[in-house]
Amino acid sequence: MPSLLERLQSDLTASRKAQDKARTLILSTILADVKNRRIELQREPGDEDVLEVVRRGIKRRRESLEMFETAGREDLAAVERSQVAVLEQYLPPQVDPAEIRAAVVVAIEGGATNVGAVMGKVMPQFKGRAEGTVINAIVREELARKG
Question: How far apart are CA 54 and CA 81, in angstroms?
């Protein structure tokens, strides 16, 4: 099984051959970010490091997407949306919300009474497998239900 970095590089080569400019742009941008991360770490990045770079790229593009939608720039928002879709292909499968909800309930029963405390207990369990916004929404629902 090739590493995530190798997969990104081979997909970049394939997109260049197919002359898919949009996909080539996003993949080359992410690979440049990975190269910067390698310099930062002063070692070869592992799959977890590359995954973190991909996640950061998705987060950055979602923030841009939100701003473009607010500004009414649907043309630019569409570009960001397509870039997020490309990058999401490299993420591992997301955790089932029921599993997150069960962990949140356990944390609340364990004495966590506010969002920060519950998030602090639950986030490490799902690091890299679920988005913080999803976990946060479930935490707020469960706290509202208990309160």
Answer: 15
* pLDDT in the model for residue 56: 93
pTM across the whole model:
0.74
Query: What is the amino acid identity at position 93?
Result: P
Length of the chain: 147
pLDDT in tens, 61-94: 999 999 999 999 999 999 999 999 999 999 888 7
What tokens does 31 get?
């690979």
Domain 97-146, what fold?
Answer: Arc Repressor Mutant, subunit A (1.10.10)
Enumerate the domain spans of the chain: 4-88, 97-146
CATH topology for 4-88 is Hypothetical Protein Yqey; Chain: A; domain1 (1.10.1510)
pLDDT, position 147: 62
